[in-house]
Design a protein that fits this description.
The structure is a single chain. By secondary structure, the protein is of the alpha+beta class. The chain has three domains: 262 residues, P1 Nuclease (Orthogonal Bundle), CATH 1.10.575; 85 residues, Immunoglobulin-like (Sandwich), CATH 2.60.40; 88 residues, Immunoglobulin-like, CATH 2.60.40. The strands form four sheets. Strands 4-3-6-7 form a four-stranded antiparallel sheet, covered by helices on one side. The longest helix is centred in the middle third of the chain and has 36 residues. The radius of gyration is 28 Å and the shape is elongated.
C-alpha cells in the first residue's frame, strides 16, 4: 500500500488518526465486551475470550504510530467512489476497485472492508490450525474493524465535518460524547446467525450505516445552536439527545456483527473445541503465486529461508510430524529462490503449502486452489538423486520432454554455487550426471536443475536437497 507517500503527510495523518480513533477506547471496549450476549449455547467456550477481546479492542489503533499502512485499514471514504453516489454500491473485491480506479485512489480512500475480511480469514486459518493465541488476536482485530464499520464518520469523505462546517465533529461525537454517556449505552444481542457470503455481509452493513452520516452532522448543528459552542455539558447533552437512539443501535449492531463473524469463522473452521495456548511462533514467510505462475502446470513458491516446502491437504495441522505424514509432495528451498511446484497430478480443490527452516520452525500455511486438471507437467521429470545421504558421490538422473538449455549446479545453504555439473543444450530424453564431492565438507547441499529460455529467462527451476555425511575412510 502507498499510504500518502510524503513524510509530512504521514506524520500529520498518524497524529490525526490517533485523535480520530473510532468510538474511542471506551466505545471499542463496549462493542467487544458485549459480543457474548449473542453467543449461543454451543459457543459457550468463547466466553473465555471476552476479557481478551475487550482488553485488546484498540490494539489496531495503537499500531498506527508504528505502521503507516495501518491507518487506511480503519476507514473507507466510500462516497468518493462515483458508483456509490450513482447506485449506492462499489465493487466488492479490492482488485476490481484498483482496476477501475487505480491503486492511488483506493489507497487514499481506505481499505476498511478488505481489512475486516482479512482479519476474518486470519481467524478462520488460526482456528483450523488450533493456534488459539493468534486466533484471539485476529478476533480482537476483527472486532476493531467491525466497530469502525459501525461508526458513520469512518465511512465518509466528510469524516471530520470538514466539508459541511462541522470541523471537529469526529472526536466530539465518538470520544467526548461517548465518554460522557457510555453508561447509558446498554443493549442485548440476538442469537448468532449463519452468513451466506462474508464479503457481501461486510459491505452491506457499511452501506446501511452510511445513512447515519447526515444524522450525526445535523445533530452537531443542533447542539451547536443550543449550546452556542462545541464544548461543555450543554453541547454534549444536546448532541446525545439527537443521537442516542442511533448511537445505541450502531453499538448493538456492531456487537451483533462481531458475534456473527466469530461464529461463522468457527463454523468454517469445522467448529473445533477451543483450547488455550500462547500464539504459535512461525518461521519462514511463504509467498505463493498460483494465478499467474511463470511455468504452466506449477505454482510459484518462494520461502524467505533455506529449508523445505511441503504440499499438504487443506487443514493439515501445523505440526511437522503430521505434515511429513500427510505430505503430497515436498522439495528443498533456497532463500528467495522461485520454486516451481508441480500441480498437474492434483485433483481440483484447495491445498496448503508450508515452509520449514533448518531450526524446524514452520511458516503459516498458504492456501491455493487447483481448478484445471490435465495441464502439462514440468519439462523436467523423473528426477532421481541418490544415494542420499552420501559420502563420496551423488548420481543425478532426469528426463527432458524436449530439447532445452539446461544448467545443473550444486549450491550450499548460503546460496553459493559449489560446482556446475552441466550448462549446455541437452536433447530430449534421459540424462545422468555424477557429482564427485571429494572437495566438499560434510553438510547440506542442493542440486539445482534450471531451464533457461531465450535471453537467459528462467523457465523452470527444480531443487533437490542432499546431505553429505562423514566419510568412513
Amino acid at each position: 500500500m502507498n499510504f500518502r507517500n510524503k513524510p509530512f503527510q504521514i506524520f500529520v495523518i498518524i497524529v490525526v488518526s490517533l485523535l480520530l480513533s473510532s468510538w474511542g477506547w471506551q466505545g471499542h471496549q463496549k462493542i467487544s465486551s458485549s459480543v457474548s450476549s449473542s453467543f449461543t449455547g454451543e459457543m459457550e467456550q468463547f466466553n473465555t475470550w471476552v476479557d481478551f477481546l475487550t482488553e485488546h479492542a484498540s490494539d489496531a489503533d495503537y499500531r498506527k504510530s508504528d505502521d503507516p499502512e495501518e491507518g487506511p485499514k480503519h476507514y473507507i471514504d466510500i462516497d468518493n467512489y462515483p458508483e456509490f453516489i450513482a447506485s449506492g454500491r462499489i465493487p466488492h473485491t479490492l482488485d476490481s476497485c484498483i482496476d477501475d480506479h487505480g491503486s492511488s485512489f483506493v489507497d487514499n480512500n481506505g481499505y476498511l472492508p478488505w481489512a475486516t475480511l482479512a482479519s476474518y480469514e486470519d481467524l478462520v486459518k488460526y482456528l483450523k490450525l488450533g493456534d488459539w493465541g493468534n486466533a484471539k488476536i485476529a478476533a480482537a482485530d476483527l472486532g476493531h474493524y467491525v466497530a469502525d464499520g459501525h461508526m458513520p464518520l469512518h465511512i465518509t469523505r466528510n469524516y471530520d465535518g470538514q466539508h459541511t462546517g462541522n470541523n471537529g465533529i469526529h472526536s466530539r461525537y465518538e470520544s467526548h460524547m461517548i465518554g460522557e454517556y457510555i453508561d447509558e449505552i446498554n443493549y442485548t444481542g440476538s442469537p448468532v446467525e449463519d452468513i451466506d457470503d462474508i464479503r457481501t455481509y461486510i459491505f452491506d452493513y457499511l452501506y446501511h450505516n452510511y445513512q447515519y452520516v447526515d444524522s450525526v452532522i445535523l445533530a452537531d448543528d443542533y447542539a451547536k445552536a443550543i449550546a452556542g459552542s462545541t464544548s461543555g455539558s450543554v453541547y454534549l447533552s444536546s448532541l446525545w439527545e439527537k443521537t442516542d437512539d442511533v448511537t445505541i443501535e450502531l453499538f448493538r449492531t456492531g456487537s451483533q456483527a462481531l458475534a456473527n463473524l466469530i461464529y461463522n469463522a468457527w463454523s468454517e473452521a469445522g467448529k473445533p473445541a477451543i483450547g488455550d495456548s500462547e500464539p504459535f511462533e512461525y518461521g519462514p514467510e511463504l509467498t505463493v503465486n498460483a494465478d499467474t505462475p511463470s511455468q504452466e502446470g506449477t505454482v510459484d513458491v518462494i520461502s524467505t529461508e533455506v529449508g523445505m516446502i511441503y504440499l499438504v491437504p487443506e487443514n493439515t495441522a501445523s505440526d511437522l510430524s503430521v505434515i511429513r505424514e500427510l505430505s503430497i509432495d515436498s522439495t528443498a528451498a533456497l532463500a528467495y529462490f522461485v520454486v516451481h511446484f508441480p500441480v498437474s497430478g492434483l485433483e481440483n480443490g484447495v491445498y496448503w503449502l508450508y515452509a520449514r527452516d533448518y531450526e524446524g520452525l514452520l511458516s503459516e500455511p498458504v492456501a491455493f486452489t487447483v481448478t484445471g486438471v490435465g495441464v502439462e507437467n514440468m519439462e523436467v521429470e523423473n528426477i532421481l538423486v541418490y544415494p542420499n545421504p552420501f559420502t563420496e558421490f551423488v548420481r543425478i538422473s532426469f528426463s527432458l520432454k524436449k530439447k532445452d538449455d539446461i544448467s545443473v549446479r550444486v549450491m550450499d545453504t548460503q546460496g553459493r554455487t559449489v560446482t556446475v555439473l552441466m550448462n549446455a543444450e541437452m536433447n530430449a530424453g534421459e540424462h545422468h550426471l555424477i557429482w564427485d564431492s571429494d572437495a566438499a565438507t560434510p553438510d547440506v547441499y542442493f542440486i539445482v536443475i534450471e531451464i533457461r529460455g531465450p535471453d537467459s529467462y528462467r523457465e523452470g527451476l527444480v531443487v533437490r536437497q542432499v546431505v553429505k555425511g562423514e566419510s568412513k575412510k
